[in-house]
Amino acid sequence: MVIRFYRPEDDPALMILERRCPRGLPEPFVHYRRRFIDRAALFPDHQLLVAEQAGAIVGAGAVSVRRTQIGGRPVTLGYVFDVRADPTMRRSGIGQSLVAAIDDYLIGRGADGVYAHIVASNVPSLRLFAKLGYRQLRQTLLLIFRPLPAPRPPAWTPHCTGDPAAGQDQIQAVHGARDLYAPGVAEQVKELGFERWSVDLGGAQFAGVSLFEQSRVFQQWPAELPFLSEEDMRQRGERTLRLFDEVGLHNPPLLQAVFDTLRDRLAGDHASRLTLLIDRSARIPPFLLSAAWKQIDYWTVFKSLKPGCTPEWRDTPLYIDAREL
Predict the structure, then answer these.
(1) pTM (predicted TM-score)
(2) How far is the C-alpha of 126 from the C-alpha of 269, rounded, in Å?
(3) Is residue 195 within 8 Å of 161, Cβ to Cβ?
(4) Tens of pLDDT along 124-133?
(5) Helix spans in 123-229 (H)
(6) Dist. CA 243–CA 144, nearest whole Å
(7) How far apart are the C-alpha atoms of 246 and 171, rounded to whole Å?
(8) What is the pLDDT of residue 91?
(9) What is the pLDDT of residues 35-61, one digit of tens each?
(10) Distance between start and end Cα atoms, the chain
(11) CA neighbours within 13 Å on the CB side: how many for 251?
């Protein structure tokens, strides 16, 4: 088996591999996208490794490299995702070889550590990463909402803007000190239908959330359904919007006004779902949990790549990059 860097001509074979590698229980899903590389390309500094045997692609794994922080200390970390192995070749070490190759690539880049998010029900993947020295760090929750008409007009009317600089002072105040903080996500997704919705009454009375149209890049797709053509996908209107940089968890009434207004507008705008990633240790308002149509638990796993380097994680919730998962 040979592990090499991705080439554009690999995409058709990689999408066939994706279709054969469902994950998540009790409703298995796969990721639909035009090209396999599209998820990785959301990150400016990315790499995709491909496992090849006898001229056939049998596995793949993606990684992004970025500067962030742990315990207030600047670090360079890799984020591993899209690890796939041909299911007909289980127990042949494809996944293990790919993750180990990604670790080696990151060590060569001088990275301090590496992390991944793994569906909590994906026991084989959790075992694979544990075998390679990754430890379970924190649970992350993916909340999935349906657009829904508001039962009554919210008490406050949110302001909407497409300016990625909007609300950054509040976002920095709420998220800036958190481990894995990634500044500038809004700027990176501004061409993907970015919007910022917010209410600001002055002082600590503020709430807001950003969004971008994740389905322009990829979306989770039921594993039992065949992939449709790009045109058929557009006609179905399966738009998925990722919510991120939420502020106002300390003020649930204001945040709910933003959330209800957003769901109400999207109910008539051909959107099929909204998703929000949040650390389970965060103070999640009950209305977000009760409004969720579905919840999926993930484990965030981490591994140090420099001998003797043990990060001092903060007790505050992790910042989850909206481009992940």
Answers:
(1) 0.95
(2) 38
(3) yes
(4) 999 999 999 9
(5) 123-131, 168-175, 185-188
(6) 10
(7) 8
(8) 81
(9) 999 999 999 999 999 999 999 999 999
(10) 28
(11) 20
> How is residue 312 written in tokens?
């001092």
Q: Please answer whether residues 119 and 81 qualify as being in contact, where contact means their C-beta atoms are separated by less than 8 angstroms.
A: no
What is the enclosing helix (H) or strand (E) of 13? helix 11-19
Edge to edge, what strands does the sheet with 294-304 contain? 2-5, 46-53, 56-70, 73-85, 113-119, 294-304, 135-145, 271-279, 239-247, 206-213, 195-200, 159-161
Token readout for 305 is 């790549």
In the chain, DSSP assigns E strands to 2-5, 29-32, 46-53, 56-70, 73-85, 113-119, 135-145, 159-161, 195-200, 206-213, 219-222, 239-247, 271-279, 294-304
Looking up tokens 């066939």, which residue turns up?
A: 16
Give CA–CA dist 5/97, Å, rounded: 14
Q: Which amino acid is at 4?
A: R
User: Would you say residue 260 has pLDDT above 80?
Assistant: yes
**Cβ–Cβ < 8 Å for 180, 206:** no
Written as six digits, the tokens of 290 are: 């009760």
Q: What's the pLDDT score for residue 134?
A: 97
Average pLDDT value over all residues in the chain: 94
Helices and strands (H, E) in the chain, number of each type: 8, 14
Lowest model confidence (mean pLDDT) among 7-16, 60-69, 111-120, 263-272: 263-272
The phi and psi torsions of 262 (rounded to 5 degrees) equal -65, -50
Residue 8 · residue 209 · CB < 8 Å: no
